[in-house]
Amino acid sequence: MVDEKGERIPLTIADWNVKEGSITVVFNEVGRTTHKLASVKAGDSILSFTGPLGLPAHVEKFGTVVCVVAGYSTATCLPIVKALKAAGNRVVVIIRAPSKDMLFGDVPLRTVADQVIVSTGDGSFECVGFVLEPLKEVIEKEKVDRVFTAGPVCMMKLVANTTKKPSKIPTIASLNPIMVDGTGMCGCCRVSIGGETKFACVDGPEFDAHLVDWASLMARRCTYSIDTQSPVKYQCLNCAQW
To answer: Are 28 and 34 in contact (CB under 8 A)?
Structure first.
């Protein structure tokens, strides 16, 4: 909460510095609260900061792990990659960005991951296209033991479909549905996993991507879509670009 009249919003930790006692979060200015947060200057304070919430990521030595990310998740993927490398894994990161100008977070990842592949929609940086092409190429070239994905729901769904058949590669998706209190009290972040109802804030954010009810998740995320009169049911601006 930025101030007494503000709302609580969930933000993913992108990095931290134990010596400084600081944490790093990355966010986009899309609403009143994020605009307020962006106006906070060095030395200022905010009303409330609670965390970390949810369950920690499951990390062990899997072998070769491919992380498929896009948007702000490119920045928040860094702690996962660091932990995977520390556990002795080979880590390949695939980043999707609309263009070179909209690419961020790849530089720190290159210092940690074994390989970073960037796919841009307009071909202005590295390869052109979606994340599925480079993902399939990596799977064909080497044995992939695990896939981690974070970003737009439509992208994660397609990644899950790609790794489910015929590869059957264990795939973990970091879900970020509509969330209010972050403690499991409001129930807004409920998701269906293998037919069971889970709360992303306390049971997640990581779930087996092959068990996620993606249709239900996309419908809930589009509940407050700007274009409520759209003839396409559950269509939202975020999903439309994918």
So the answer is: yes
Q: Which domain holds residue 32?
A: 1-52
* Helix H or strand E encompassing 53: none
Give the separation between CA 90 and CA 59, rounded to whole angstroms. Answer: 13
Of the candidates 180, 166, 165, the one whose C-alpha atom is nearest the C-alpha of residue 224 is 180
pLDDT tens digits, residue range 118-153?
988 766 666 767 889 999 999 999 999 999 999 999
Question: Could you tell me if residue 45 is inside a domain?
Answer: yes
The per-residue pLDDT for range 44-102, each reduced to its tens digit, is 999 998 888 899 999 999 999 999 999 888 988 999 999 999 999 999 999 998 777 77
Report the alpha-carbon distance of residue 211 to residue 161 in Å, rounded. 11
27 and 105 housed in the same domain: no
CB contact at 8 A, 119 and 106: no
Q: Measured between alpha carbons, how far is residue 19 from residues 16, 23, 234 in Å?
A: 9, 11, 46
Query: What is the C-alpha to C-alpha distance for residues 148 and 203, in angstroms, rounded to an integer?
Result: 17
**Side-chain-side CA neighbours of residue 222 (13 Å):** 22
Query: pTM of the prediction?
Result: 0.86
Report the domain count for the chain.
Answer: 2
For Cα atoms 2, 55, 169, give the angle at the middle one, nearest 5 degrees: 125
Same domain? 130 vs 217: yes
Length of the chain: 242
**Same-domain check for residues 113 and 11:** no
